């Protein structure tokens, strides 16, 4: 590389890489406490990348075996655990030790085990276990990672999400499975979105791609008067009607079944929400949908709220740039977008006063708000 002509950002990375590639540097670093500290930290990070799949499968095994529910009952020996989860003694001991090393379990000095801090967090968020269970499909696809990158949407995961298929009259097993998965992980997303966005003043709200209606039930508790509309594919709309029927505010909900690209959008809405929708779709669909929303909102000078995990301007978001980037490729449609990409899309489709609301948990969601001129 021609060092003197390259920008500073390139030169210092080039220098850093040359130092890290030099075995003499590593030998020297190990002689000093601070050097050992950084060397250990860097080695741990690299090892975690190397072993990540095994860690994930320890988690999957614990969830499938019901290990964490058993540990939540209190201190337990490996033999008791083996009986409770139905695995052989040796397999159970290994699963317990691996779980303890990952903070999913804690090992006590008498050799028994209890639930660990990550295990407790897992049980507190049932959506995570649902997410881990459905990862079987993407792990199968990623067993050959190059093939997965060569063939977009050509594997098992794409079969789970049937957005591209025809909208049948009745929900299929797949529709029910992905809608249940979305519902299970919605509470965290809704709590964070509605913490940073004040929804109380709106009178007629439409949630597009609203799934089983879980997000709208959170809206209902924060806004006591608004009419609440949901639009989703016909098959999912049937599931939403069923789920919302027994809700105490059921009289305020109206469910519309249809494709968001051509179904009539209820008029007179002052707020439309898109929760975990845009990242699932390619650019042409996103632009067409935003254009429809901007026309639907314009007469009432309305607001659009977008809430979903986003990519980072410098590709440093593990959830956006690593997880969703690869996941959506395997799914065969969509990509995570940065807030500035979404902002450009919003400007092109007639929105203004676009604001990025920073959530405390970008791992669950980020939010953008825009208004029609
Ligand atoms: C990732 S899920 C998100 C569901 C919900 N908003 C949430 O966050 O839990 C995407 C939703 O968009 C719906 N969807 C996808 N394509 C659609 C289309 N063309 N028309 C209407 N709904 C669509 C799906 O059926 C699904 O319910």
TrEMBL record:
The keyword rRNA processing appears for this protein: no
Q: Which GO terms describe its molecular function?
A: O-methyltransferase activity; protein dimerization activity
* Gene Ontology BP annotations: methylation
Q: Which UniProt keywords apply?
A: Methyltransferase, S-adenosyl-L-methionine, Transferase
Transmembrane among keywords: no
Which intervals hold domain O-methyltransferase dimerisation?
48-123
Tell me where in this chain the O-methyltransferase C-terminal domain is found.
Answer: 172-352
Q: Which Pfam families match?
A: Dimerisation, Methyltransf_2
Please name the PROSITE patterns in this protein's record.
SAM_OMT_II
Q: Which domain of life is it from?
A: Bacteria
InterPro entries named among the record's database cross-references: COMT-like, COMT_C, COMT_dimerisation, SAM-dependent_MTases_sf, WH-like_DNA-bd_sf, WH_DNA-bd_sf
Protein name (Swiss-Prot/TrEMBL): Hydroxyneurosporene methyltransferase CrtF
Originating organism: Fulvimarina pelagi HTCC2506
* Phylogenetic classification of the source organism: Bacteria, Pseudomonadati, Pseudomonadota, Alphaproteobacteria, Hyphomicrobiales
């Amino acid at each position: 590389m021609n060092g003197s002509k390259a920008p500073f950002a390139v030169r210092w990375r080039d220098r850093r890489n040359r130092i890290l590639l030099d075995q003499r540097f590593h030998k020297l670093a190990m002689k000093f406490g601070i050097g050992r500290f950084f060397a250990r930290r860097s080695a741990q990070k690299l090892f975690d990348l190397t072993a990540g799949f095994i860690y994930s499968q320890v988690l999957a095994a614990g969830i499938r075996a019901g290990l964490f529910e058993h540990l939540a009952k209190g201190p337990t020996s490996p033999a008791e655990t083996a009986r409770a989860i139905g695995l052989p003694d040796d397999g159970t001991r290994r699963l317990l030790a691996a779980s303890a090393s990952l903070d999913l379990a804690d090992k006590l000095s008498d050799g028994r085990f209890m639930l660990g801090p990550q295990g407790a967090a897992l049980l507190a968020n049932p959506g995570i276990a649902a997410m881990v269970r459905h990862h079987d499909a993407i792990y199968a696809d990623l067993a050959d990672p190059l093939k997965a990158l060569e063939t977009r949407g050509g594997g098992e995961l794409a079969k789970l999400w049937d957005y591209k298929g025809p909208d049948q009259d009745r929900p299929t097993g797949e529709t029910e499975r992905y809608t249940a998965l979305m519902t299970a992980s919605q509470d965290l997303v809704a709590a964070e979105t509605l913490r940073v966005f004040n929804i109380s003043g709106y009178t007629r709200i439409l949630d597009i791609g609203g799934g089983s209606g879980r997000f709208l039930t959170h809206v209902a508790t924060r806004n006591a008067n608004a009419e609440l509309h949901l639009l989703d594919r016909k098959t999912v709309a049937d599931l939403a009607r069923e789920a919302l029927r027994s809700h105490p505010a059921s009289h305020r909900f109206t469910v519309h079944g249809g494709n968001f690209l051509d179904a009539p959008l209820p008029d007179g809405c002052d707020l439309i929400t898109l929760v975990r929708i845009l990242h699932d779709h390619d650019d042409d669909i996103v632009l067409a949908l935003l254009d429809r929303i901007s026309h639907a909102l314009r007469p009432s000078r309305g607001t659009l709220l977008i809430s979903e995990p986003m990519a980072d301007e410098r590709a440093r978001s593990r959830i956006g740039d690593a997880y969703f980037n690869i996941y959506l490729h395997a799914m065969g449609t969509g990509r995570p977008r940065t807030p500035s990409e979404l902002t450009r899309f919003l400007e092109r489709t007639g929105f203004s006063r676009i604001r990025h609301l920073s959530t405390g948990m970008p791992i669950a969601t980020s939010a953008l708000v825009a208004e029609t001129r």
